[in-house]
User: Fold these one by one.
Assistant:
Number 1:
Amino acid sequence: MKSHSTGPRTQQGKQRSSLNALRHGLTGQTVVIPSDDRQAYDQFIRNFYSDYQPRTAIERQLVQTVADCSWRLNRLRAQEQTLLTLGTIEMESQINNPDDRCATACASGLAFEKHAKTLGNLTLYEQRISRNFDRALKQLKQEQAERKAAEEHQLSRAGTMNSKPSALKHFPTTRPPTSSFFRMTLSTPTPDAKPAITTPTRPPNCVSKPPRLDLRPLS
């Protein structure tokens, strides 16, 4: 009977097996690969959170995506430079030129020719990651703009509601002056005071005359 492999059993073997398909860390779900510095990555992410100050779960997710895309772009460019450097060192032995700078330039050209396909794939990965970066950054700015607009609208409404009661301060609370007639009527007389008897007066042009009698005899 043939025995089927059950896979690695030790913890190190399981960890190594989980990274079998990981070659460059540009397209997989693993953002931090063993060659990366975990502390440097954590500090890199904290800088993005400090700059964008996410408030909601969506904003935090978008900030994380933007930071991860930036980390992968930096790794891609580092891998491109490393690939060309190693290829140049490998090809320098095939260049017979006393001028060191000329020999290095020729070796760099041969290294680029040798790794042209790999460099082309790196360019495709860079374009894909850059599109994800731009999309996430655009959405993040839109989410934050909508949130800030909603907060400003709520603050303006709260300010309007708080300013309405202040209008009562300008409403006159003192009693307007009353006429002399109402003051006389509303005044409280003293116990010893006698009511004043006033004689009605007539205007000077309003003197009444007795009616004239007609004493002529009747015919």
Number 2:
Amino acid sequence: MRRQDTLGYPSLARFNASGVSMFATIGLDSLRTAAIEALPVDLWQERWQQWFANFIAGTIGNPEEEHIQLTSISYSAVRSSWENMGERAGIQWGLRPWRTNPYLYFLAHAGRLDGRPLITFEGRAGYTLLGSTKLEGRLTLQLPASFRLAGGASLDLFRMTSDEPGVTHFAVTLERVIPFHGLNPEAVFYVGFQSGVLNRSPNPRQENLIVAGLSKRW
């Protein structure tokens, strides 16, 4: 046991498990995307058929949406891909029933500024059979000079009247799109502030976090 702890074998096992889970997720996301592309959604022209097609596409498809956090203060390639896919798609919504924490989500845009949506709203309503309803939302406002201001919040309705920690979280980010030359012509510089309860520690405590970084797809 002492030799195992010295060489860090448990850490390697956790890294290997994370890698296996990551590749399994990539494969499953690819299968979901291929399944949506194979469905004859364009042939469903009737109103009820179109509604059903949008529901199926939003439930099985849009795997990027499932991997983003609405109260995150960082910017990632997954969020960039999700924003680019949904930029001109109007209203999107769907259900994620196969998760341990299932939820209903929707995405909506309003207006245009500098070729981008002026206002973007993302929402989630999570539910459990024996637990509470958790609401999450993120509002993004496009500003002049390629700046964006985003605010996200999560709220546990069932625990609002209790003194339990972790009932609410909120985050604010200021983003600036920076143009580059090449195949991926944009990068995003961001500064974010997040406040909430850190539940990963044995003793949950209030945590305020400030992050700054640069996200670039290569």
